[in-house]
UniProtKB/TrEMBL annotation:
Keywords: 4Fe-4S, ATP-binding, Coiled coil, Cytoplasm, Iron, Iron-sulfur, Kinase, Membrane, Metal-binding, Nucleotide-binding, Phosphoprotein, Transferase, Transmembrane, Transmembrane helix, Two-component regulatory system. The keyword Isomerase does not apply. It is found in: Cytoplasm. GO terms for molecular function: kinase activity. It comes from Kribbella pratensis. Member of the two-component regulatory system NreB/NreC involved in the control of dissimilatory nitrate/nitrite reduction in response to oxygen. NreB functions as a direct oxygen sensor histidine kinase which is autophosphorylated, in the absence of oxygen, probably at the conserved histidine residue, and transfers its phosphate group probably to a conserved aspartate residue of NreC. NreB/NreC activates the expression of the nitrate (narGHJI) and nitrite (nir) reductase operons, as well as the putative nitrate transporter gene narT. It catalyses: ATP + protein L-histidine = ADP + protein N-phospho-L-histidine. Residues 205-232 form a coiled coil. Its cofactor is [4Fe-4S] cluster. The keyword Kinase applies. This is Oxygen sensor histidine kinase NreB. The chain crosses the membrane at residues 56-75, 84-106, 118-149, 156-178, 184-202. Residues 241-439 form the Histidine kinase domain. Its EC number is 2.7.13.3.
Length: 442
């Protein structure tokens, strides 16, 4: 009885294989295994597929199918010589997988990969030619061919070679007749088409997955670079902020100490001990305040003066000290109630205070003024502070590369505000700082 068609065959001593649609059905999940397994890890080494970490499963599938094939051959009516050849071929295939195939799977090297697949196809031709029922080994053979492929053309060529080899073996087993050829041909064509379609589809899925993995790796690299850039920018911003704080507090205090010390030296040279004592007392007060500011900088950036008094009180205290140190008449004017000033956020009060300190420092160093007016007000949703003097003035835009005004602008712009400077040589200077007014909830 012909096993392929169910009719009587003229080749009683050779068996034909039963090529049913079930031959191609399991190919779906086998190739899907490849899809899941062959995607490159974005963080793994080059050419190391993720599926090698689940190699035990592939061992089990291969050895189970090979063992089933050998066991079923003993249940058939093979002659002793054929049985021995069949068993020997199974051993050769198992050894090729163990010593060549696994190496090819792990290393992805071309030479062992091609060698193993050629041995695999040759062994399958012998096994199917001797015992056609072992055709189900094509399940794992087709999957391994695509697993070890580097591109689609290679997979197509080796899949075609596999189908032609298996078809030739089946035709030899059936006796080389035309009837057998026409009965085998349709299933071989179907098997080839299904294998190629799924193989090409899976290969494209793998390529897209690899591209996505590379894109993810690039995005992660860009994210790391961006995080590093943000960190560097944060460090630079913090350094700039520290520089402004030191310039607005410690540096100005040190300048006052130097000027007071020089004045005290002049008083002592003239024999005026009372005046020198007053200068020394002012030096001590300034040094103590600088020390407190230094400690405040270590703990936080809130000026120590604002932690002990309101902004209005601090401005008046600064004006009194400036007048005592320089002899300049300094007045403080408020265009808004004191309670509204106290309701401003601490950060805004710091900006206003530092701006006033910087403007007074510029008056001390450059203006040679006799009068200074500090005005604090609120209008159009913005709080502003204005420092006006009657000093020598300058031409706007021609100021040197000093740190003071640039530091003031940087601090104010961080708060969303603006700095306006108006000056005319011989007619004084006006510095106005405007920032959005946001009152703290009480």
């Amino acid at each position: 009885m012909n096993q392929l068609t169910g009719t009587t065959s003229s080749f009683p001593e050779r068996r034909r294989t039963d090529l049913s649609p079930a031959w191609t059905g399991p190919r779906v999940w086998i190739l899907v295994w490849r899809k899941m397994g062959s995607v490159q890890s974005s963080r793994g080494g080059a050419g190391q597929p993720v599926w090698t970490r689940t190699l035990i499963g592939w061992h089990v599938v291969f050895w189970v199918l090979l063992g089933m094939t050998l066991a079923l051959s003993f249940l058939g009516d093979l002659r002793t010589a054929r049985q021995a050849l069949f068993a020997g071929t199974v051993v050769v295939l198992g050894a090729a997988y163990q010593f060549i195939g696994l190496h090819a799977i792990r290393s992805r090297r071309a030479l062992p990969s091609y060698a193993y697949r050629l041995v695999l196809i040759a062994c399958l031709m012998v096994l199917i030619g001797i015992y056609p029922q072992s055709v189900f080994l094509m399940f794992i053979a087709s999957a391994q061919i695509w697993l070890l492929c580097e591109d689609i053309r290679e997979g197509i060529g080796l899949s075609l070679l596999l189908v032609l080899g298996v078809g030739t073996a089946q035709l030899w087993s059936a006796g080389w007749g035309w009837d057998a050829f026409w009965e085998i041909l349709p299933w071989m064509l179907v098997s080839l088409v299904v294998s190629l379609l799924f193989g090409i589809w899976i290969e494209k899925v793998i390529t897209q997955s690899q591209q996505r993995a590379e894109l993810i790796e690039q995005l992660e690299s860009a994210r790391d670079e961006l995080a590093e850039a943000h960190h560097s920018a944060g460090v630079m911003a913090e350094r700039e902020r520290m520089a402004r704080e030191i310039h607005d507090t410690l540096a100005q205090g040190m300048t006052s100490i130097v000027m007071l010390a020089q004045a005290a030296a002049v008083e002592l040279s003239r024999g005026g001990t009372d005046g020198a004592a007053a200068r020394l007392a002012a030096i001590e007060d300034t040094a103590r305040e600088n020390l407190a500011e230094a400690r405040a900088l270590v703990a936080a950036f809130t000026p120590v003066a604002l932690s002990e008094a309101t902004l209005t009180e601090v401005l008046r205290r600064q004006a009194e000290r400036f007048a005592a140190e320089t002899g300049v008449d300094v007045q403080v004017s408020l265009d808004l109630p004191d309670d509204e000033v106290a309701a401003l956020p601490q950060a805004q009060q710091v900006v206003l205070l530092r701006s006033a300190q910087e403007a007074l420092a510029n008056v001390r160093k450059h203006a040679a003024a006799t009068q200074v007016l500090i005005t604090l007000g609120l209008s159009d949703g913005r709080v502003w502070i204005e420092i006006r003097d009657d000093g020598t003035g300058f031409t706007p835009g021609s100021e040197s590369g000093g740190f003071g005004l640039s530091a003031m602008r940087g601090r104010v712009e961080e708060s969303g505000g603006t700095v306006e400077v108006e000056s005319t040589p011989g007619r004084g200077t006006r510095v106005q700082v405007l920032i959005p007014a946001v009152q703290e909830d009480v």
